[in-house]
Amino acid sequence: MSEVAKAHGTNWLKHIGHLAGTPARGMEIGTFKGESAVWMCRNIFTHPDSVYYCVDPFTGNKEHEAGGIDCSHLEEEARSALKDFKQALIVKGFSDDQLMQSWGCGRFDFIYIDGSHFAGDVMFDSFLSFKLLKIGGILCWDDYLWDVFKEPLDRPQLAIDTFLAMWGWKLEVIHRGWQVMARKIHE
What we know:
By secondary structure, the protein is an alpha/beta fold. It has seven helices and seven strands, in the order H-E-H-E-H-H-E-H-E-H-E-H-E-E.
């Protein structure tokens, strides 16, 4: 069992398991090596007409540098991990550029924000993702309690809290822990 499945699988099944076997549309911002996308394609986005977009520039960032993580083969690893899942579509690029594109595929049932951990980037991803999410869709932020960097602007929590304070009346928070999950209830 992958680390992703151990950490989040039960919670994901509880909150988005109803999408399994349906022609659902999902997206993750931050694919890294593809572990979460593989889990999603095996367990949730299983219908032949499902699509799961994986948005990542595959460059790594400051947190990877600080942890001494080699990111030179991320894209190759993600593509290899996802090669058997036709529903997984890798979109190489930064989320701010990609989310502002015309996606032409309708609204999303699920969007998973796990890209840059900088509060400003998380806030931007949150606003754009919210606009792409359909009513009843689930927005999921990862690393809410992540504290590798001590400066609040270098962590996701400030952005998530601020976004929920500003847009919380349009969302129903359904889970809060390492991840925060919210259902969109209003446009």
